Amino acid sequence: MLTKLREFRLPELALMARLAIVVPLRRRILRRNGFQPNELTTAGDTGTAAIDTARRLGRIVNIAVSRAAGPENCLLRSLMLLRLLDQRGIAGNVRFGARPDQPFVTAHAWVEVGDEPVNDTRDNIARFSRFAGPSRTSSE
Fold it and tell me: Is the Cβ–Cβ distance between 110 and 94 less than 8 Å?
């Protein structure tokens, strides 16, 4: 764990600490209230620098959620990341998919900036059939 943290700068570590406090609260709110469709997209930049920033924030959120008390959840990670992207003027979309090869429904959520996944790998996402959904870009 310590080696993972060494790649981050002090402001990013501070963000991670704040997220560790917010994650349990956001988890309870999500469980109680669900989410609204307008929470699934943000408008803004989709350039290379935005994608790099989004990937870095995705790593920070993934670490914070995995270390917070309670179960880890891809929807929670994605909604928290999307909020951070919105605060920074980066366009993002929460995407959903399901595994068709399973005898029961296995669903997954991840965030994309442009067409680039930023909080998951392409290999993992490829295992899921993607649902169509809304998207908002910088040109809208």
Answer: yes
Which tens digits make up the pLDDT trace of 24-66?
888 888 888 888 887 888 999 999 999 999 999 999 999 988 8
Q: What's the pTM value of the predicted model, to 2 decimals?
A: 0.84
Are 50 and 42 in contact by the 8 Å Cβ rule? The answer is no
What are the sequence ranges of the domains in the chain? Answer: 9-130
Instruction: Quote the pLDDT of residue 50.
Output: 96
What is the per-residue DSSP string for the chain?
Answer: -HHHHTTS-HHHHHHHHHHHHHHHHHHHHHHHH---GGGSEE-SB-SHHHHHHHHHHHHHHHHHHHHSSS---HHHHHHHHHHHHHHTTB-EEEEEEE-TTSSS--EEEEEEETTEESSS-HHHHHTSEEPP-----TT-
Q: What's the CA gap between 119 and 55, in Å, rounded?
A: 6
CB neighbours of residue 125 within 10 Å? 15
d(CA 120, CA 125) in angstroms, rounded, equals: 7
Side chain identity at residue 138, one-letter code: S
- Dihedral sign (CA 116, 12, 20, 45): negative
